[in-house]
Amino acid sequence: MLPWAVLVTPARDVAELIASNAPFKPGVLKEVEAELAAARPELTWSNPVAARASAMVSLQLAQDAQARSTSEEVEAAFSVAESRIRAALRLNPSDSYLWASAYFVRTARAEFNPSDTRLLTQSYVTGPHEGWVSASRNRLALAAYPILDPRTQTLAISEFSEMVGSGMIDEAVANLLGVGWGQRERLLASLDAVGRQPKEALARRLEDEGARVEVPGVQLETRPWR
Hints:
Radius of gyration: 20 Å
Shape: elongated
Number of helices: 12
Strand content: under 5%
Number of strands: 0
Structural class: mainly alpha
Low-confidence stretches: 1-6
Distance between the termini: 65 Å
Order of helices and strands: HHHHHHHHHHHH
Largest sheet: none
Number of domains: 2
């Protein structure tokens, strides 16, 4: 068995890399999972760092399995991930990323129910202004917008404007032109209080994408080649 002290820092580092969508070489996460499994089980399920890393590695492996496995194997992988995410949340119920992950797992499983949106709501309750969580969470929220409760809808719209204000332009554009297109008027209206520079950056990116939308307070100069 590996001493847990040897795994604490690597486990934390892997969790942070997964949260930031960093790429991994093939097989690396399987090795990490094996190392975590080699630690004493009672530590894996009682230490918040270990539990979080185990949950996030399992979730990433489940997502990877979607591209190459049968539906039964994928369902089994997400079932394991869900179990580990819930175990990690019992140790750290204030982790907004894990709450959003718990919701994502439900959307990926055949058992999804609209009432599962309470998990996404809890993510906003525990961390409403966490920029590193917002890119993935905002996408999930906008995709489920019609079935969210009014408070969570408001938080999702506000989160989009915070993303723009903090310079997360690529993520904001992807969400607006993708799952958020049906709410584009609300999303664009939420930008009134955002500074001019990030709004101009958003407008340029939208123009580059060929999107015909008006960003409040921004009037771009017409390019002669357009």
